[in-house]
Write a structure and sequence with these properties.
The complex is a heterodimer of chains A (about 500) and B (about 500).
Chain A: H1 6-20, H2 54-77, H3 81-85, H4 90-94, H5 100-112, E1 164-166, E2 177-179, H6 187-215, E3 219-225, E4 228-235, E5 241-242, H7 267-279, H8 284-289, H9 292-295, H10 314-325, E6 331-332, H11 338-353, E7 364-366, E8 370-373, E9 382-385, H12 386-389, E10 404-406, E11 414-416, E12 434-436, H13 458-463, H14 470-477, H15 481-492, E13 494-495
Helix pairs in contact in A: 5-10, 7-10, 11-15
Chain B: H1 2-13, H2 19-23, H3 39-65, H4 69-74, H5 78-82, H6 88-100, E1 118-122, E2 126-128, E3 152-154, E4 165-167, H7 175-203, E5 207-213, E6 216-223, E7 229-230, H8 255-267, H9 272-280, H10 284-287, H11 307-318, E8 324-325, H12 331-347, E9 357-358, E10 363-366, E11 376-379, E12 392-393, E13 401-403, E14 422-424, H13 446-452, H14 458-466, H15 469-480, E15 482-483
Antiparallel strand pairs in B: 1-2, 3-4, 5-6, 6-7, 8-15, 9-12, 10-11, 13-14
Helix pairs in contact in B: 6-11, 7-11, 8-11, 12-15
Classes of the chains: A alpha+beta (about 500), B alpha+beta (about 500).
């Protein structure tokens, strides 16, 4: 394996960095990609296993750390060693070369990788690091995914300091939209539930259209998925649709559960956008399909003009998406103290009684736990079964039988949260005060709260609710301190499995 | 669907195509200390992690059950500390709770009831960056360094990033040793100055002396018979000759002041000590206009943190673990590590990044500010989290300020009369776990950071560039061995 290109590009780059400091990095364009194709290797730094015996778990975590350290030394003697190991090719994934565990590891290696200018970090016409984004181009503002997703465990949430400042002028905080990095635990299940909801809505729409045609008159019905009502849809006999009565979902009826305002339907879309705006790492797919205002003005195969081609392969996008889909499921861990357990029970009842549960729907059903990622290159889907392959703890059918239920505490629907939480401007066509119901699973391990991290505590977050949640907020505010404590106890039980990690 | 069927055979097939070594499961584990951790060591590591996780979980539920419990855990009164009511472990726990505490309106966060985050600081008053210390020290483990997103944007106009000086959060490990070393160096410099003054008086003539501490030269000064001093040739330290080892430009001497100032500029949390100072001399730019001395930021909260909290946070930081050096496991890599260490010396890195500074007295006395109570004594090589280290402190810094050249200079003047391009030699212990590098976190990797050196380090940087590429890699291997001991933690 030669390191074709790595040393030459590296040398030029480092010099450029040293001389241009914080200004835009000027790079000599070079047609040579940094890494070789098909060099991906799962290096044994990560696992989906959660060993119940704590000492064994600690031993394995330390062993993984030891491997990581040794490979990091190897990377110093052989620059590009780690970068080549995460160069995943879509063809290999589609051909089934990698096990689910390998895919998880490869995705995790990407998630923890330090993106360097040699790998394509940054853009010719953007600052080297920028705290506030420039429009849809992004910062870049970080060098690793994991540096903003750390709290509460692997793939966790970001601190308030890690907030992203989107869609700004590159300089003023006041020009931006503030976004706290959410925890990624359970993300695969969220996507699967949303996909099933979208399919249910599409079936309802198709049925309505057929009916309207058959009856020869416009029909208007309430439209729902998994028990969540998304307003009313009207179908005309000529096949036309009126979606003005819809609520909480776009007129395409696709439930988009990712992003604080519900912008992304799939983890693949999330991965691509975050790599772009936070690291300036451009996927080959976006290079082919996205407009210059997102990927840069230089066109061709290197639209961000940094001299690096194929910064992110289709396979890397897939591996990262599959890794995120395989994130562990948050769980509920009630308090151990006897008095607290009683109050916790009362709090759970209160969660429903106050009206919290009408949007933070405790659970949604899931028919199929297989996560299939259809190929965009015409090949077979890449698939894992989250009930079998995902990181532990995994989703499992209820003890008493029946369908699988995902306890995410969300209806995956957008709601108006009132003027108190509204931002100065709309975000990608979603109105300023409108946000997706944030899933509450893992809540205790994902502080601070709300889209802008403006709430350091759960209670502060509740009290900031408004708009459609105003009645529930008022009901909470009217409680005695002791009663509020019950609800806080219940919400504090929403946590993640205990895990020993070597940071 | 055919993918499903293929996974099975592939599993069996994988080793044959050479993935076995890659997967690591079957290959020998390259333990950094040579051997696998012993059962005893594992037990201790797990015990410590689980004990802390249990305590934090119980405290989390206590706070949920009864609001204000969290605050109790950081609330140490200095007069109570003065009575000796708390042992070092308890004081450490107070500090640990402080480090993780999410400051909020009830604590006096900011200066309004619901202030939004303000990432660009407003002058010396600060901003509102986050809610807890832990929020910006997450890289490499607890009490670690900050990511690029966690950079503080100091002394700006409250909105525009371009008006601010950027600061990446450093790790806070081993800082008890740093504080003690700097204190001994300050003492040595003061002694040299006092000696020169005495001699000048005795001789009736000006006396010029070289001043140095722990083998680090800080230039020279001239003492006059009238008791005055010419400090214009003093270098790398303020004219007061106090070595200030904290802050990227080296402007804070004591951990207690460092903690107090961080709480003030990052959370708008004002210590009672600062309020007491405001009473005699209102520092309106830094603290606010009052009108009451006990609440300078006028948010209706007084004693936002106690003097005792300042004390416990200083003791806590002094008792945190010490970084270590862990060479590679593989003999070949280890050879490269040794030659990298030699390169570090040969190229000249070690002239500022001093590998070792000797500490004369491993005892540290933490004195209160106002109560006149006794000091709390810490034995730095005995008390606190493991590993502790020895009195030969492998800091990789001379604790002196140097001009780093225009390329690294801040875009704006600071609040102290220091040139924009002057920075304290950053200690390198723990380096491998603290990316990104440099004061503004611009460098993702160690080689990038080296390349950015200029000014007084320019010749060394040029020597680094002139090295054989393999020697540069050896140096990189060596620098990656500056790390922290691998420990297990339960993420919180």
């Amino acid at each position: 394996m030669s390191r074709r290109g790595s040393s030459t590009i590296g040398g030029v780059l480092v010099l450029a960095l040293a001389t241009t400091a914080l200004a835009a990095c000027s790079l000599e364009p070079s047609p040579v990609p940094f890494a070789q194709k098909g060099t991906a290797r799962a290096l044994g730094f990560f696992t989906t296993n959660l060993e119940p015996d704590l000492e064994k778990q600690a031993y394995e975590a330390l062993a993984r750390d030891a491997r990581w350290r040794e490979h990091r030394f190897l990377d110093a003697t052989d620059p590009g060693h780690l970068a080549r190991a995460l160069r995943v090719e879509q063809g290999d994934l589609e051909a089934g070369v990698f096990t689910a565990e390998d895919m998880f590891q490869l995705g995790a290696q990407l998630f923890h990788a330090t993106f360097t200018p040699e790998m394509g970090y940054g853009a010719k016409d953007l600052p080297h690091v920028a705290r506030f984004h420039t429009g849809r181009r992004g910062g870049p503002d970080a060098m690793r995914c994991a540096s903003c997703h750390w709290r509460g465990g692997p793939g966790g949430a970001g601190d308030a300091a890690d907030n992203a400042y989107l869609a700004g002028d590159g300089d003023r905080q006041s020009s931006t939209l503030q976004r706290n990095p959410p925890s990624l635990a359970g993300a695969g299940l969220v996507e699967l539930v949303a996909r099933e909801m979208s399919a249910e809505l599409a079936r309802a729409r198709d049925k309505l259209l057929t009916q309207a045609k058959a009856e020869g008159k416009p029909l208007r019905v309430s439209i729902a998925a998994k028990g969540v009502v998304f307003g009313e849809l009207e179908a005309r006999p000529d096949g036309g649709l009126d979606g003005t009565g819809l609520a909480g979902v776009d007129t395409d009826l696709v439930v988009k559960p990712f992003g604080w305002k519900g912008h992304f339907a799939s983890l693949r879309d999330v991965v691509e956008d975050e790599l772009l705006v936070h690291h300036g790492m451009q996927s080959t797919w976006l290079v082919k399909t996205a407009p210059p205002e997102r990927i840069g003005p230089f066109g061709g195969t290197d639209p961000d003009g940094d001299g690096v081609l194929e910064e992110i392969t289709e396979g890397q996008v897939t591996a990262l998406a599959v890794f995120l889909a395989m994130q562990e499921v948050p769980l509920s861990e009630p308090p151990a103290d006897q008095d607290q357990i009683v109050r916790f029970g009362a709090g759970e009842a209160r969660f429903t009684a106050l009206g919290c549960a009408s949007c933070h729907v405790p659970s949604l059903s899931l028919d199929d736990t297989r996560y299939m990622l259809p190929s965009r290159e015409g090949g077979p889907s890449v698939a894992v079964d989250l009930a079998r392959d995902a990181a532990a703890p995994r989703i499992a059918p209820p003890f008493d039988g029946g369908p699988i239920r995902v306890y995410l505490y969300s209806d995956l629907k957008r709601h108006d949260m009132g003027p108190g939480l509204a931002e100065p401007k709309a975000d990608r066509a979603v109105r300023p005060g409108v946000f997706l119901t944030r899933p509450l699973w893992g809540l205790a391990r994902s502080r601070p709260y709300l889209h802008d991290a403006s709430a350091p505590t759960i209670e502060a977050a509740i009290l900031r609710h408004g708009g459609e949640a105003e009645a529930a907020r008022d009901a909470f505010a009217a409680l005695t301190e002791k009663e509020r404590g019950e609800l806080r106890l219940f919400l504090t039980s929403l946590t993640r499995a205990r895990r020993l990690v070597v940071p | 669907m055919n993918v499903w069927r293929r996974i099975g055979p592939v599993l069996v097939f994988a080793p044959a195509v050479g993935l076995m070594v890659a997967a690591g499961g079957e290959a020998p584990i390259p333990w950094p200390q040579g051997d696998a951790p012993s059962a005893v060591e594992l037990g201790e590591l797990v015990g410590a992690a689980v004990e802390l996780a249990d305590r934090e979980r119980i405290e989390e539920y206590l706070e949920a059950a009864e609001k204000g419990e969290d605050r109790e855990h950081i609330f140490a009164l200095q007069p109570t500390i003065d009575t000796g009511a708390y042992d070092l472990d308890r004081l450490f726990q107070f500090g640990d709770s402080f480090f993780g505490h999410e400051f909020r309106g009830d604590d006096g966060y900011g200066d309004g009831p619901l202030p939004g985050l303000r990432r660009v600081h407003t002058g010396v008053r600060g901003g509102l960056d986050t809610y807890s210390c832990a929020g910006c020290h997450s890289v490499g483990g607890p009490n670690g360094a900050g990511a690029a997103t966690q950079n503080a944007l100091l002394l700006g106009d409250g909105d525009r990033a371009s008006t601010a000086n950027v600061r990446n959060s450093p790790h806070v490990l081993g800082v008890g040793f740093v504080q003690a070393l700097a204190s001994e160096m300050s003492f040595a410099l003061a002694k040299a100055r006092d000696g020169a003054l005495a001699e000048a008086t005795k001789e009736g003539a000006a006396v010029t002396v070289e001043i140095a501490a722990k083998g680090v030269s800080f230039g020279s000064l001239t003492a006059f018979p009238d008791g005055s001093l010419d400090t214009s040739l003093v270098s790398g330290v303020d004219p007061d000759l106090v070595v200030k080892p904290f802050g990227w430009k080296g402007d804070v001497a004591r951990l207690r002041r460092f903690a107090e100032d961080a709480a003030r500029i990052h959370f708008g949390i004002q210590s009672h000590v600062l309020a007491l100072g405001w009473q005699t001399e209102p520092d309106v730019p830094r603290l606010g206009a009052g009108p009451n001395w006990w609440d300078p930021d006028n948010d209706g909260k007084q004693r936002e943190i106690e003097e005792g909290t300042v004390t416990t946070s200083a003791i806590y930081m002094a008792m945190l673990e010490t970084p270590v050096i862990l060479p590679p496991h593989d003999p070949g890599l280890r050879a490269r590590w040794s030659s990298g260490m030699a390169v570090f010396e040969a190229v000249g890195c070690a002239s500022c990044h001093r590998p070792v500074l000797p500490l004369d007295d491993v005892r540290w006395n933490e004195w209160p500010d106002t109560t006149g109570g006794p000091a709390i004594e810490i034995n730095l090589i005995r008390d606190g989290d493991q590993p502790r280290g020895t009195s030969l402190v492998k800091l990789y810094s001379d604790l002196k300020r140097h001009d780093m050249g225009e390329g690294l200079a801040d875009p704006h003047d600071g609040d102290k009369p220091l040139p924009r391009s002057v920075f304290l030699t950053r200690s390198l212990w723990g380096l491998a776990e603290t990316a990104p590098y440099l004061h503004d976190g611009r460098a993702a990797t160690i080689p990038e950071a080296i390349e950015a050196h200029g000014g007084e380090a320019e010749a060394t940087r040029d020597a680094f560039r002139a090295l054989d590429p393999e020697a540069r890699k050896d140096l990189h291997v060596f620098l990656l061995s500056l790390t922290r001991k691998p420990k297990v933690h339960v993420p919180q």
